Amino acid sequence: MNRKLAIVKQSSNKATTKQIMKECTLETGRRACDVATNGTVGLDILSDEIVSEQLTRNIQFFGLESQRKVTESFVTIIGLGGVGSHAASMLLRSGVGMLLLVDFDQVSLSSLNRHAVATREDVGIPKALCLQKHFSTIFPESQIDARVQLFDASAAEELLSGHPDFVLDCIDNIDTKVALLAACVHRGLKVISATGAGARADPTRIRVADLRESINDPLSRTVLFFPG
């Protein structure tokens, strides 16, 4: 099966955000056409020799049909800092077929100690476009939609459309986090919320639970009892 591997050109430090966004948007469109001209994600790409080799460990562990479910899935990640960039990166490497990446902020030097893929050359680039650029070279078959945008109630209809299989809340602002969680609950969307992990040193104590069951986490408590 012939397939053109798409490569996003590395942008210089002097490139403007508008130029970078244009490059990434055009590249995403080419990649989507190469992979799924009928608009369907994940149905055919596992038959590609390169893709199947890249995901071979996943397929061996989960089985082909389970991996197909991953490849056909659509996940929205809002907040692309230390938590969101790593979550998005691992979803991509797992073969998720469609990702919507949302963050209004830019990569800074202080981001580099915790960001999943950013380098010094990415400083000043919007985090969403930074991930899109790197992701297109890691797993170009995935359709990546990057939005340089702050989530709020007015943006919910636009950013939560398309029936995502999961929404990842990786936001560190209380008001924005509450607005996103409320919008997901209202729409019946499955949402996974990252809460307080700063200055914690024992990973064995991490638990996945209902927000109402959280303990010793000021961020969870603030969200849970947020007025209104």
From TrEMBL:
GO MF annotation terms: tRNA threonylcarbamoyladenosine dehydratase; ubiquitin-like modifier activating enzyme activity
Pfam families tied to this protein: ThiF
Domain THIF-type NAD/FAD binding fold: 56-206
InterPro entries assigned: ThiF/MoeB/HesA, ThiF_NAD_FAD-bd, Ubiquitin-activating_enz
Annotated GO biological process: cyclic threonylcarbamoyladenosine biosynthetic process
CDD domains the record matches: YgdL_like (cd00755)
GO cellular component, one term: plastid
This protein's name: THIF-type NAD/FAD binding fold domain-containing protein
Source organism of this protein record: Coptis chinensis
Taxon lineage: Eukaryota, Viridiplantae, Streptophyta, Embryophyta, Tracheophyta
